[in-house]
Design goal:
Elements (H helix, E strand, L loop, with lengths): L1 H4 L12 E8 H11 L8 H17 L2 H5 L4 E8 L6 E3 L1 H24 L1
Antiparallel strand pairs: 1-2, 2-3
Helix pairs in contact: 3-5
């Protein structure tokens, strides 16, 4: 039963994967939101940490006008996977992934404890 609950970091990303943080305005943001709902991926802990750090650094580096105008622009993490369409992750998506990884760790601990 525990195997059903575990959500593993997958798929393994190719080494050619490029990650970048960018601001998306209006229609580009809408397109990214629609595309992000189709993504079913959990990044490995190290990649998730790097992605969160990159988002935080970009937030700190954002100009004050960009930061104030949050209704029209939003920061996203863009992963470019070889010849595939780019994948967009929002800060909330990264938090969800972190929660899934924490849940996995809790389940593993419970299994070890009961063994």
């Amino acid at each position: 039963m525990h195997k059903i609950w575990l959500r593993q970091p997958a798929p393994v990303l190719p080494s050619s994967t490029v990650a970048s943080v960018l601001h998306l305005p209006g229609s580009a943001l809408s397109t990214a939101v629609r595309a992000s709902t189709r993504v079913r991926m959990i990044l490995a802990r190290a990649l998730l940490r790097d992605a969160s750090d990159a988002m935080a650094a970009a937030e700190r580096a954002a100009t004050p006008t960009v930061a104030k105008d949050s209704n029209e622009m939003q920061m996203v993490l863009k992963l470019t996977l070889a010849k595939e369409d780019p994948v967009f992750f929002f800060e909330s998506t990264l938090m969800d992934m972190s929660s899934a990884l924490a849940s996995n760790e809790t389940i593993r601990s419970a299994i070890l404890f009961s063994s």
